Write a sequence for this structure.
């Protein structure tokens, strides 16, 4: 399936730049723990590389979630491994369906550090279903959608949310692909613990492979 760009087409792919937000990036310091500082860090990376969009993070181990109790339940392994790709761009940026499909489910997961508004689409790929998840949206992205609503490839389905509505993050899209939703509605784990990585690495394929961007 040829993928339509998932961000506003006025942001050309040559002006995308990969960014490292892993636990090994010493330059980050404590910027991840404050949305304003983090946005300033991202702006510096964009300026340094002449970029409009930063992206990356598939299976990346991050410190970003260490202060959220629902990512780090007491007595269990911390959930640190990121299962999708993040696209960092200004709030209000349009988000487009990469493939034809239909709306599977949606929700507004408003806990700090969660997805905020999130939409999941269902696609048919060869002989199996593939789900695409879009997190950290604007609240008005959820208006007027319904289960089973058909979506054509290239349709604008949402916009990026602000810090106040997207779970408390610098504006970005969490884009994740999922083979088996395991019964989830309007949600699916976007981060996992190390012991669960083999399963989620299989169930959540690398989005960049299927998008065919680079």
């Amino acid at each position: 399936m040829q993928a339509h760009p998932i961000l506003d087409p006025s942001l050309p792919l040559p002006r995308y730049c990969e960014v490292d937000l892993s636990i090994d990036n010493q330059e980050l310091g404590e910027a991840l723990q404050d949305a304003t500082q983090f946005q300033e860090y991202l702006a510096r990376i964009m300026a340094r590389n002449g970029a409009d969009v930063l992206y990356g993070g598939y299976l990346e181990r991050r410190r970003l979630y260490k202060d959220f109790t629902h990512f780090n339940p007491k007595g269990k392994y911390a959930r640190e491994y990121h299962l999708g790709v993040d696209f960092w761009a200004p709030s209000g940026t349009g988000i487009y369906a990469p493939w034809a499909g239909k709306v599977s489910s949606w929700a507004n997961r408003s806990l700090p550090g969660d997805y905020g508004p999130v939409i999941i689409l269902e696609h048919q790929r060869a002989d199996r279903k593939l789900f695409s998840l879009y997190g950290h949206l604007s609240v008005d992205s959820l208006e007027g959608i319904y289960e089973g609503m058909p979506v054509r490839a290239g349709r604008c389905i949402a916009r990026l949310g602000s810090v106040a509505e997207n779970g408390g993050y610098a504006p970005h899209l969490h884009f994740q692909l999922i083979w088996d939703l395991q019964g989830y509605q309007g949600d699916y784990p976007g981060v996992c613990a190390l012991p669960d990585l083999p399963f989620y690495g299989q169930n959540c394929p690398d989005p960049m492979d299927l998008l065919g961007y680079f």
